[in-house]
Every structure is written in structure tokens, then in C-alpha cells.
Amino acid sequence: MRNVFSVLFCILSLVGFSQSTFVYPSLYVEYDSAVTYKHLKLIPVKRADSSEMIVQQNDQVFYPLKTALKKGWVKVKERGNYMVDNINVLIIENNSNEKIFIRSGELVTGGRQDRVIAADTILMPGKKEYTIPVYCIEESRWSEHEKKFSYGGNAASGLQKIIDSAHNQKKLWEEIRRLLVLNNQTSSSSYATLLSNHKIADGTNEYIQFFLQQFSKRDSSIVGIIASTGNKILGADVLINEGLFYQTLPELLNKYCIEAILNGTAASPVHEKEQAYADEMLSEKTQQSFLNKKGKRIFYKGKLIQITGY
User: Fold this and answer.
1) Fewer CB within 10 Å: N-end or C-end of the chain?
2) DSSP string across 57-93
3) Residue 220 has pLDDT above 60, yes or no
């Protein structure tokens, strides 16, 4: 499993890069522009000067997995027939002329078992098969017959933290079992089925539509968000430019909105915790150690294009 992760991260990483565009003073957090809806608060992160980022946007147009599956650009399939050897990998083929951004935490349902993507991966144009690491999110099913894979949405940010930092199938199942019991959904072992419950799905869509509408009214210098519920920080995502941020915004909103519905409490009107979190994540002296412990970096062609904090 470690070898699979190493190969994929080699595609997205490069030794020696400048992080100056992902720290203060290149970035600033606009606490006065916090957007709150029920159990979720999002605080915009903006770029102080985006002029040098504009020329880079043309090469950073990525289509999400949801779109690629809907248009038939990609094919997802099992690697083989045997559960022990193949439960933690899927084969994904890009048959289009587009770049497809597959994100950790995205769900694919069907196959012999529902899965969640375990590593951020950019599929380059052209027919090529990628071996993608995944985790099982449907503990009780391993079908003899492979069903067609479909897009299943995004894992909540709490589950994604387990996926990205713990790398542990057992811990993932334990959290899914807890959520199923908490939401009276024990008739199925599938996390994707839980998210498709009408109450959760409708609530998530309500949250997402609210925030999409709010952000559509904002100026174009937003490149990231800090998310919290109650007095708990859910995480933060900062992109290299506003174009990539708005491409990515629906997926970012999905994971935070689901988390707020499943585990949230009323959003706090004060921002002290968010400020302490942002200062640690975005300060040049502390960013590296912060991301090493509770975050990640995503690269494209050797350039850092996103940082994520948990």
C-alpha cells in the first residue's frame, strides 16, 4: 500500500519549491467577511496580489471526477476478482483530452464494494490506466459480480481527516459504524447510503446552495476558506489562485457541509480559534510543521497548487 501512495505522490510532488504564495503576507484572512449558516462558518482567505497568479490559470483547468464520470470520460473498474488483493485499489482510465482532478475523500459506489478515494491524483489527458488507492466504506458487501461504478459524493471532513492522516481501514470502519448508529441507519453498512438519506442529502444541498450563492457575490480575490462548527475547527483549504478555488469550491463545500450536519453545533460569532489556526497554518515559520502534522500539500507539474489543513 505504501508503494502505491509513493508512486501517486511522486506524480504530484517535487523537491524544491517556493511556498511564498501560501503564507503571510501574500495571503490574508478576512474575518469580517465570515459567512455563517446554521452549524457552519466559513471565513474567506484572500490573496493580497493576484496579478502574478493570473498567467498561471490557463494550465490549471481541471475537471472533477463527478463531471468526468457523468460525461463518460473516465472508466472506473476493479483490479481483479479477489477481495484480499484488490479491496484497497481501483483502476481508473482517462479516455478524454482533459485533465481530471480526483480528490481524496470522493466516493465511488458500485463495483464489488463502495469505496472512497485515498489520494489526490491528477489524471492527464490520453488513454492511460491509473492504479488509485482507495478504502472500503461498505463493510458488509463484497459482490461476486462487479456493478458499474457511479459518483457517490464527498466524505465529510472528519472522515477525510482519517483517510488522509490515519491511513487505517479499521479506524475508517469504526467511524462509519458510529455515524450509522448515530443517524439510525444500521440497515446498511454503506457510508454512501447514509449520505443519500433524504434528510442528510437535502440538508447538505441546502447548505451548499446557500454558500455558493454567498460566494458568487464576493470579489474574485478569494483563494481559500477556513471552516468551523461551534468552537471546533473543521479545516482549511487554500488554492494557488481564485480560478482554481472556484473550480474546487463545490467539493470543498460538500465535505464541510456534511460534517456540519452530521457532527455540528451552532456556529460561534467570535473568531479567536480560527485566527490561532490560521496563524499556525499560514505563517512561514510554522507552516511546514503544521502541514506535516495535520495537513497536506497538492502539486501539479512541480508547483504547489493547494494546501489543506485538518
Assistant:
1) N
2) GGG---EEHHHHHHTT-EEEEES-S-HHHHTTEEEEE
3) yes
